[in-house]
Amino acid sequence: MVEFKLSKEQLLAKEMFSKFAENEIKPIAREMDETEEFSMDLIAKLQKYGMFGIPYAKEIGGSGADVLTYALCIEEISKRDASTGITLSVHTSLCCGSLDFGTDEQKEKYLRPLVDGRKVGCFGLTEPGAGTDAGGVQTSAVKDGDNYILNGSKVFTTNSGFADTFIIFAITDRTLGTKGMSAFIVEKGTPGLTVGNNIPRMGIRAASNCEVAIQNVVVPAANLVGGKEGTGYKIAMTALAGGRIGVGAQSVGIAQGAIDETLKYIKERKQFGKTIGSFQNTQFKMAELQTKVDAARLMVWRAAVAKDNHENYAPLAAMCKLYASEVANDVTRACVQLMGGYGFSREYPVERMHRDAKITEIYEGTSEAMKMIISGSMKVGR
């Protein structure tokens, strides 16, 4: 049986996420974007309300909810501010998702404080010369007794400016290609780990997104994720597959937020003696936009439920990210157009939403990479 309805618990959670976003995020979203600085007070509130550990079991300190509830949270948050949405998504899907592969000791020491609201995590995979080609990672990890010595650099590392826990991917055996990549837990303040300034960006400007220098960083062998070399590529790809559900939900939130703001505007703005919303051209355009957003939302839900059910969700996650990110860009561009000069003004949030939408087609796998995953699952080239 296919269900298109949320449970009572999910509906209540969605309402709570929406009220939180409206009361705590919307009033400061523009200021965070303008100053390009994320509010640490907001981080504390997100932690207090348990939003950093939504899909993790209560036994490990999480909220004990499902992946679909997590997707609902990312959507509601991203309706008001995409920077907050990606901050949550990277922490939950990528950093905590990597620690799903950790040993029991690693989960107790590092995953628990990440999901119970004490700490924030980040995910260091992308490098200046390794983006879509994750196998091109150059950061190295050399065994030295009971430690590993890490050297290299990471770039576009979301949350790095205020993260407590870094997941760093490095090569332990260069002769094995992707099978020679491993993942390491590195704590903030470790000598040789240096976080640079925030990288100036077109969108999600409030998110912390820095370059991370790794110079002779000594990491205990006990911090090798899972306790086994060569599993880093699998860990990264699995975490990213889950992260694409988060980015899909973020994309839906951006698009729906833009529609909501545009609806308020077209009901009040008058041209030629009547409201813009009374013109059939405007009505038909809004109908098209909302239909696209609803379709994207259902694709996100399908991927989230598949992950909850431990099914092969990776192709579904790629589909929802590919389509929802395209929808976010199409919808926000159309909303700016419908609002005319005011849509182009930073006084109204649709301008920010349009800038924020672009990155959803790039990070955690470009649209082109998503097409590779989807066509691969279809065995098109065989």
Describe this protein's structure.
The chain has 382 residues and is α+β, with helices and mostly antiparallel strands. It has 3 domains: 108 residues, Orthogonal Bundle (Butyryl-Coa Dehydrogenase, subunit A, domain 1); 113 residues, Beta Barrel (Butyryl-CoA Dehydrogenase, subunit A, domain 2), CATH 2.40.110.10; 144 residues, Butyryl-CoA Dehydrogenase, subunit A, domain 3, CATH 1.20.140.10. Helices cover 52% and strands 15% of the residues. The chain contains 10 helices and 9 strands. A 4-stranded antiparallel beta sheet has the order 2-3-7-6, covered by helices on one side. The protein has a 3-stranded mixed beta sheet with strand order 1-4-5. Helix 4 runs antiparallel to helix 5 and helix 8 runs antiparallel to helix 10. The longest helix is centred in the middle third of the chain and has 37 residues. Pfam families: Acyl-CoA_dh_1 (PF00441), Acyl-CoA_dh_M (PF02770), Acyl-CoA_dh_N (PF02771). Keywords: FAD, Flavoprotein, Oxidoreductase. This is Acyl-CoA dehydrogenase. Its cofactor is FAD.
